[in-house]
């Protein structure tokens, strides 16, 4: 009985380490997103940290338009980053989970 428990605890610790390593790796995965006309470009990591924002000079004259472009473009980039992040972390978590009936549905 304790052997199974200790084995599960070891597996849990291993999975936690893999999750940590995956999060660190996701800091190096860059997502580039542009507005539809290319006037705003953003780069973020898969952990949703903004790395750069480039704005065309023509947008500097219209504050409202610039704000709209930034919101739309950043939201698209964040959505892509979130999808990558969740997919990667779910795969690591699922790999490390013991085979408990009914738990499969949590990671789909």
TrEMBL record:
Keywords: Cytoplasm, DNA-binding. Its main location: cytoplasm. GO terms for cellular component: bacterial nucleoid; cytoplasm. It is found in: Cytoplasm, Nucleoid. Transmembrane segments: none annotated. The keyword DNA-binding applies. One of its GO terms (molecular function) is DNA binding. Homodimer. Belongs to the YbaB/EbfC family. Binds to DNA and alters its conformation. May be involved in regulation of gene expression, nucleoid organization and DNA protection. This is Nucleoid-associated protein SAMN04488116_1052.
């Amino acid at each position: 009985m304790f052997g199974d428990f200790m084995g599960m605890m070891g597996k849990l610790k291993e999975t936690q380490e893999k999750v940590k390593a995956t999060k660190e790796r996701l800091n190096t995965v860059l997502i580039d997103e542009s507005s539809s006309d290319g006037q705003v470009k953003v780069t973020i990591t898969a952990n949703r940290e903004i790395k750069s924002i480039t704005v065309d000079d023509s947008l500097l004259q219209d504050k409202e338009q610039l704000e709209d472009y930034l919101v739309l473009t950043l939201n698209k980039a964040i959505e892509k980053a979130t999808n990558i992040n969740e997919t990667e972390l779910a795969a690591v978590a699922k790999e490390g989970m013991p085979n408990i009936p009914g738990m499969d549905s949590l990671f789909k």
